Amino acid sequence: MMLFPIDTAAVIRDGGAVGRSPADLHEAVAWWLGACHVATQRTSVMAVAHDGHPVSRRFADSLLSGAINAEHYACLVRDLGIQSEETLVQALTAGAIPGAYLTADGEATNCLIRITLYDRRAVPVDEETGLAEVRRRIAEDRVPIPVNARSKGRVVRTLGDHGEEATP
To answer: How far is the CA of 94 from the CAs of 97, 122, 126, 140, 162, in angstroms?
Structure first.
């Protein structure tokens, strides 16, 4: 069960989640979004990037953790780190994979956070392409945890021109 429930109708909208941290959104919401996005997109590969703000970085880490813990998908999550949204969209388009982009604006104690979820076409999800299902799963506290140890995914950090490095 989510320790600190959120108003799912108010914050899960506009292609993902939008709200003030920590009043409207907290890091556990990002975990749930990652897990639910993998499950609703039925994907075994996705990419995540953020704008580099300390809050969006923390939320991205939580989203990555959720994305590797989604039912039976054993998702390989490519952590692109600090990138522009345009760079993420190009990566999603090239791989025909879903993803997420996180931005934050303001001080850590009162920050506007936006988590945009993308489908395989590199288009923000809407009610019909996954957002309604993500919202429902979170509102109903339906935890999409791995069904067994082999079902857990992994995060791979992309290191630019130097290749990839798996993270523990």
So the answer is: 8, 9, 21, 34, 19
- How far is the CA of 146 from the CAs of 3, 12, 85, 94, in angstroms? 20, 23, 29, 28
Percentage with pLDDT > 90 across the chain? 68
Amino acid at 95: G
AA letter at 66: G
Nearby residues of 12 by Cβ (< 8 Å), 6 or more positions away: 33, 131, 134, 135, 138
Please list the rounded mean pLDDT of every run of 10 residues in the chain (168 residues): 65 91 89 94 97 97 95 95 97 97 94 97 95 91 78 84 44
Tokens 């003030």 sit on residue: 20
Give the whole-angstrom CA distance, residue 21 versus residue 62. Answer: 14
SS3 113: strand
Bridge partners (DSSP) of residue 122 are none
Residues composing the chain: 168
Residue range 20-59, pLDDT digits in tens: 998 889 888 999 999 999 999 999 999 999 999 999 999 9
Cα-Cα-Cα-Cα dihedral sign, residues 91, 92, 97, 101: positive
Which parts of 42-155 fold into alpha helices (H)?
Answer: 54-67, 85-95, 132-139
Task: For the chain, report the end-to-end CA distance as a whole number of angstroms.
Answer: 26
